[in-house]
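Researcher: Re-running this chain for the archive, since the previous output was lost when a drive failed. Same request as before.
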Amino acid sequence: MEISRSEQKRRVQEVGKLVVELAGLPPAVLASSPCGEEIRALLKTAATLSGGARQRHLKYLTKLLKTEPLDELYAYISRHRGKGLTERKQFRELEQYRDALINEAIEEQRHCAAMQVDWEEHWHSRTLVELAEKMPEIDVPALTRLASLFARTRNPRHSREIFRSLRAALEQHQRANTAGR
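Model: Regenerated structure tokens:
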């Protein structure tokens, strides 16, 4: 799935929010964080800075962390600061998957129209294959049908229904993971 420049910027901003939350943790809590020693030391340094120096330091930390896997850090922040940051990240990911699915359906419809072939409701989607690997709970036939309905009608109701279905699958996946532990 190709990521637009705007989406890349939004993702970096989300990492920046995570860094700000981490920098705001007390030193005793920060000592047990799942990040590396170098990052932990830089976060402790950020606590002593103020103004522009702090902003530059936090940007530097964001740059270091943007290529790292951050799931453990989001879980750590959720335990200490609440789940708002994690929920916002998941919301953005679901929006991105919804938009990718819709764009893929529109492109498929255009391709079939150019080839003068009837477009079927049950078409192959790379986005749904990727999603099914991450969350086996998703209803692939329903999502392909909703995406094709949106591509035909451009009715926002179908877009909202895709998002609801993705959110429900994510919640079901999270419940299954917590029950399995």
